[in-house]
């Protein structure tokens, strides 16, 4: 049975990845979910897998070398999928230090622990061991020409403390691959959306605010462009890179779903109105009148767009979910899981760990 260590597995993409892997592999794999459970880590995301015999949750900080080394010494770890990171740009502008600590030093801790556990006396590595570092398209900076795209060869040009910290973590992984021939890959993805996303991010924030008749704040003129990737497509891409990707390579995972932020918000409003019953009192206030333009974010990149040509050619991955389909699936999920949203926005989800694990 292959053993995976998934860092940040209680977060948005990490929890979706764990669901995807159990759906695909069932009892053929074992997953150890390592998460510090900061504000964005929510064990309620994994209620339906928490009692599986091949699933283990470990509450640990990826910067805690002793705790991370213990996980590797007590388990024969085959794969690491490293999601754990501080990821919200606005928070990074207010407190860059937290991002450097978690994203850079935490990544170094994970690399050191895996290297120590996997390296043979002659400097080679045990067969079948792989480390996958999940990064972002924001490390490439901003695109001004509408015909340009980010490729794996695009020079790094991060503009926010968040993207600078992720670029630094990427370079640390690259250094381990180059210096030690450490068996790793890097993936850089575009903006993810889908179930279990913490409602500080654009799509769940707008869904939640609209349903409660609150303002829908849009930075600047609303014309900043992002490439949107349905989270399950991303999870599939990560798995395919681990199985088929060439070691030491970087693969860009993009959605080919470019949209202006204002387009995203208007699509959410339109889709909500289609989904809400005519007699639902919320329908009357879900209109474009809720849109409010606010002062632009500092250092706000204008456009991101990934060309996933390499991963398609070498691995066979491509984005299967169009935005039109994905946004409806996402909105329906939030409709069906309104209790989850209430717990997240009220902070009650943070009690779940104590309720589930206090006596274990």
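Sequence proposed for the structure above (360 residues):
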């Amino acid at each position: 049975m292959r053993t995976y260590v998934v860092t940040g597995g209680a977060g948005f993409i990490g929890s979706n990845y764990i669901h995807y892997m159990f759906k695909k592999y069932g009892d053929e794999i074992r997953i150890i979910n390592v998460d510090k459970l900061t504000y964005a880590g929510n064990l309620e995301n994994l209620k339906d897998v928490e009692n599986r015999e091949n699933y283990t949750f470990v509450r640990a900080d990826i910067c805690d070398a002793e705790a991370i080394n213990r996980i590797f010494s007590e388990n024969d770890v085959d794969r690491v999928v490293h999601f754990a990171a501080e990821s919200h740009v606005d928070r990074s502008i207010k407190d860059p230090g937290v991002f450097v600590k978690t994203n850079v030093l935490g990544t170094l801790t994970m690399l050191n622990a895996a290297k120590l556990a996997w390296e043979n006396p002659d400097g080679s590595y045990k067969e079948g061991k792989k480390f996958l570092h999940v990064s972002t398209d924001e490390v490439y900076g901003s695109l001004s020409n509408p015909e340009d795209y980010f490729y794996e060869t695009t020079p790094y040009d991060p503009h926010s403390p968040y993207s600078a910290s992720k670029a630094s973590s990427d370079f640390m992984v690259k250094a381990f691959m180059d210096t030690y021939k450490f068996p790793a890959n890097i993936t850089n993805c575009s903006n993810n959306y889908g179930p279990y996303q913490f409602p500080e991010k654009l799509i769940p924030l707008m869904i939640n605010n609209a349903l409660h008749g609150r303002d829908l704040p849009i930075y600047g003129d609303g014309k900043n462009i992002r490439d949107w990737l349905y989270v399950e497509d991303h999870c599939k891409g990560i798995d395919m890179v681990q199985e088929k990707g060439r070691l030491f390579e970087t693969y860009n995972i993009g959605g080919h779903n470019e949209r202006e932020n204002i387009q995203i918000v208007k699509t959410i409003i339109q889709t909500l109105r289609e989904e809400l019953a005519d007699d639902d009192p919320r329908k009357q206030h879900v209109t474009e009148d809720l849109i409010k333009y606010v002062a632009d974010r500092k250092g706000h990149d204008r456009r991101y767009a990934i060309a996933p040509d390499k991963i398609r050619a070498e691995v066979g991955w491509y984005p299967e979910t169009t935005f039109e389909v994905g946004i409806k699936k996402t909105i329906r999920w939030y409709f069906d899981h309104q209790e989850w949203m209430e717990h997240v926005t009220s902070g009650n989800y943070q009690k779940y760990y104590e309720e589930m694990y206090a006596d274990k």
